[in-house]
Automatic annotation (TrEMBL):
Protein name: T-cell receptor alpha/delta variable 5.0.2
Cellular component annotations (GO), alphabetically ordered: T cell receptor complex
Pfam families documented for this protein: V-set
Record flagged with keyword Signal: yes
Keyword Repeat belongs to the record: no
Length: 120
């Protein structure tokens, strides 16, 4: 079984290692560090020739919200002081997929308008 975790959003989030392997029935933990003030932390899974699917989202201080509430094999936690997010898959199953960590930054200030309507 192989697990890959990817980088996302430039310097804002960084994965630990590029490939993890686990025997059937064991657990595997994927982790990412992030910087900045975040609104949401996300974990995605992508099988070959498929689009990424959201597994769960969480805030720095809240519990994870799973997209599939019956996914008892997934757990996640955040250490906001170390800016570390972890995803545990237990028990691991025979499959191979890419796992991505991502974040939604907190917007501060006023974002620029997408367009300006000028009337002469």
């Amino acid at each position: 079984m192989s697990f890959l975790s990817g980088d996302s959003l430039g310097d804002l989030i960084t994965s630990h290692g590029s490939e993890k392997q686990a025997q059937d029935g064991n657990s595997v933990t994927l982790s990412c560090n992030y910087t900045g003030v975040v609104y949401n932390l996300l974990w995605y899974r992508q099988y070959q020739r498929s689009k990424p699917e959201l597994l769960l989202s969480m805030t720095e201080s809240g519990d994870p919200v799973k997209e599939d509430p019956s996914a008892h094999w997934l757990s996640a936690k955040v250490d906001k002081h170390r800016k570390l997010m972890e995803l545990e898959i237990s028990p691991a199953k025979t499959d191979s997929a890419m796992y991505y960590c991502a974040l939604v930054p907190t917007v501060t200030g006023n974002p620029p308008a997408p367009y300006k309507n000028l009337i002469p």
